[in-house]
Amino acid sequence: MTQTLHAGLANTILIYTLFVAAWSFWLYFRKLDMTSQYWGAVAIVAIIFVVQAAIGVLMIVQGLFAMRTVHYLYGAVGVISLPALFAFTKGRGTYKETLLYAIILLFLAGVVLRASLTAG
Predict the structure, then answer these.
(1) What are the DSSP calls for 9-39, one per residue?
(2) How far is 22 from 102, CA to CA, in rounded Å?
(3) CB neighbours of 31 closer than 8 A, spacing ≥ 6?
(4) Which of 59, 77, 87, 97 makes the best surface tag, with the fewest CB within 10 Å?
(5) By C-alpha distance, which of 100, 108, 109, 48 is closest to 81?
(6) Domain limits of the chain?
(7) What is the distance between the alpha carbons of residues 67 and 76, in angstroms, rounded to a whole number?
């Protein structure tokens, strides 16, 4: 059951991350600052990554291991990337930072795809 949940949540993360990345690009090209709704969407992405990691740890406890150990690195990158970007930008919410968030979110979508391939 945890495997199914972990795989399904990976699909959710991928789609939602791409959606928020598109929103980021839209804000950037329209030169609009981040809104509370946008910040909420970014927070949801970060929370989903943490939940995904927690389910992954539960799977390890159950004796279910990834096919390749690099899978765990992808999980760690997913968990720390958005908080690290928030710290790097010092929480600023101007349209200029939306480009950084768009790039990181696209990067995270790639990480999710790659992690899915290394899971086994």
Answers:
(1) HHHHHHHHHHHHHHHHHHHHHHT----HHHH
(2) 7
(3) 95
(4) 87
(5) 108
(6) 2-119
(7) 16
